[in-house]
Amino acid sequence: VRAIADKYNIRLVLDASLLGENAFLVLQREEEFKESNMGEVMRTMTAMADIVYFSARKLSSSRGGGICTDNPDIYRELEALVPLFEGFLTYGGISVREIEAMAVGLYETLDETMISQSPSFIAYLVNALDAHGIPMIKPAGVLGAHVDAMQVCDHIPQKEYPAGALAAALFLISGIRGMERGSISNQRDEYGNETYADMELVRLAVPRRVFTLSQIKYVEDRMKWLYDNRKLIGGLRFVYEPPVLRFFMGGLEPVSDWPEKLIAKFKEDFGESL
């Protein structure tokens, strides 16, 4: 990629928001870096880019973010925009407390033991659900476990948003909040027609140092029950659809009374244990 960018004089920009977790995967999967450490891998990755930017919520531990470059010309281009839109160059609109927290988080990103937790939990969840016969996206990544809702809810037409329906059903029977990554996340075309996604997924994200393994096992248990009762899940339709970011701010309702039937079956199976 670097060679192609150089050939056509294109700037290469690296989104480093999950840099630590991706460096961990490099150590695990690439023979060339078997004897390297996290810092060496991350230095190799960032050295390839003209601009490196990151969200501190993902790479570090606080709100805000950063844009980095070792090119003086690019720095000068960006320099004038920061005071205009964010704050002076020395703080960028971020409090000193948050900058200190960001620094701690960046140092922790170099700690393989710390970074390995969420990828390890995600790998466990993907493999466990796969062993139960639940269609999963494999191999496991570092952001979350992705359930193939197109296969799980193959009885729901895409116009009724199977990934959104699966995410809603999981929340109803468990309180687990997954994220729809399918047609709801798309925008309509300029004529108002639905643009259906090639894949309908439910993302079960695992943030760093938040969950214990027992909580991951709870997700496994509830997801297995839901898969065994998947035919009870029905579709959704929009009741409020804003022109942009409908997957964040829109409102949907079930197309039938399927939520009541799903909850009734759940209570029947779990009884007094609830």
As residue ranges, the low-confidence spans are none
Task: Please indicate the count of domains.
Answer: 2
Please provide the count of β strands.
Answer: 8
Oligomeric assembly? single chain
- Strand fraction equals 5-15%
H-E string? HEHHEHEHHHHHEHHEEHEHEH
CATH architecture identity of the largest domain: Alpha-Beta Complex
How do the strands of the widest beta sheet line up side by side? 1-2-3
Helix/strand structural class: alpha+beta
CATH-wise, what's the superfamily of the largest domain?
Aspartate Aminotransferase, domain 1
CATH fold category name of the largest domain: Aspartate Aminotransferase, domain 1
CATH class of the largest domain, named: Alpha Beta
- Residues in helices, as a percent range: 40-55%
Largest sheet: 3 strands, mixed
What Rg, in angstroms, do the CA atoms define? 22 Å
Shape: globular
Number of distinct helices: 14
* Mean pLDDT over the full residue set: 95
- Distance from first to last alpha carbon: 53 Å
